[in-house]
Backbone:
């Protein structure tokens, strides 16, 4: 099968049958474009001609470019290529998978950065409770920390997703739905936004079911939500880097520190594997120092 047709078929598969997001499919497409360009330069245009040795040479070449790619980028590239060839075998297009012996690069373990509880409280209090946009921003921040939602999940919420009282329906990766509790602080902040702000915002634009709206009445974008978080971090004088995922990391870390079971946190975060959630269970360096200083007889 021609390689360009194989890639198109695979991308249709992950889009339609697996329901992957447009962002994820776009990343696969960019990786596979790099793969196709390399294979074409090597005189290969058919899937039958791809062997394990050729795939290994491709990965070696990509690893040696200057500047070298990050381990995460190389791992994603391998995953995209592996996914393509596994798909061809499953569909009966090719009898063997040339990536079967391919080993992913060793990833450096990076612990997620979480804010302290005091920092979170300052961040949540940063937006003005008197200005309409401030009320909306506070509702967004409270909801993110209360539920551990990804920013994309939060801006994708409809008003009806809040119809169950003290729980919220989130749509995660691959359109998978999960139900998470929403605490009283977040519920109160969202209710204030719904009654005092959203009707006026909605009147400025076309009818939208989205919960969070921008100043012109259109659904709030991920980029705008990121700006809300950054502005709150600056206003609350938090020196550490605050990213769109910071409140999600803080949500998970604070739950585990409070005694929550890792399986429960896995369910709340929408992780497919508990191994992804377990990264939050690692003891921080500061905690190690504190325990050592108070426990070891010769620490002082």
Residues:
């Amino acid at each position: 099968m021609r390689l360009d047709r194989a890639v198109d078929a695979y991308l249709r598969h992950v889009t339609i049958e697996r329901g992957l997001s447009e962002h994820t499919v776009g990343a696969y497409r960019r990786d596979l474009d790099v793969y196709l360009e390399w294979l074409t330069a090597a005189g290969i245009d058919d899937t039958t001609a791809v062997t394990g040795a050729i795939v290994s040479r491709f990965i070696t070449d990509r690893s040696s470019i200057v500047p070298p790619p990050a381990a995460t980028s190389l791992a994603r590239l391998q995953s995209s290529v592996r996914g393509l060839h596994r798909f061809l075998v499953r569909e009966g297009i090719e009898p063997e998978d040339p990536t079967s012996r391919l080993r992913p690069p060793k990833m450096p373990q990076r612990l997620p950065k979480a804010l302290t509880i005091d920092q979170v409280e300052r961040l949540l209090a940063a937006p003005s409770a008197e200005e309409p946009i401030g009320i909306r921003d506070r509702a967004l921040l409270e909801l993110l920390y209360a539920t551990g939602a990804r920013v994309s999940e939060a801006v994708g919420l409809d008003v009806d997703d809040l119809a169950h009282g003290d729980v919220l329906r989130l749509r995660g990766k691959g359109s998978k739905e999960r139900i998470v509790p929403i605490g009283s602080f977040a519920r109160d902040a969202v209710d204030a936004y719904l009654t005092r702000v959203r009707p006026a915002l909605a009147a400025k634009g076309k009818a939208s079911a989205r919960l969070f709206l921008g100043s012109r009445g259109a659904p709030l974008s991920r980029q705008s939500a990121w700006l809300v978080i950054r502005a709150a971090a600056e206003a609350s004088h938090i020196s550490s880097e605050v990213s769109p995922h910071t409140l999600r990391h803080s949500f998970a870390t604070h739950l585990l520190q409070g005694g929550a079971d890792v399986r429960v946190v896995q369910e709340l975060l929408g992780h497919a594997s508990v191994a992804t959630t377990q990264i939050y269970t690692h003891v921080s360096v500061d905690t190690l120092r504190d325990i050592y200083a108070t426990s070891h007889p010769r620490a002082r």
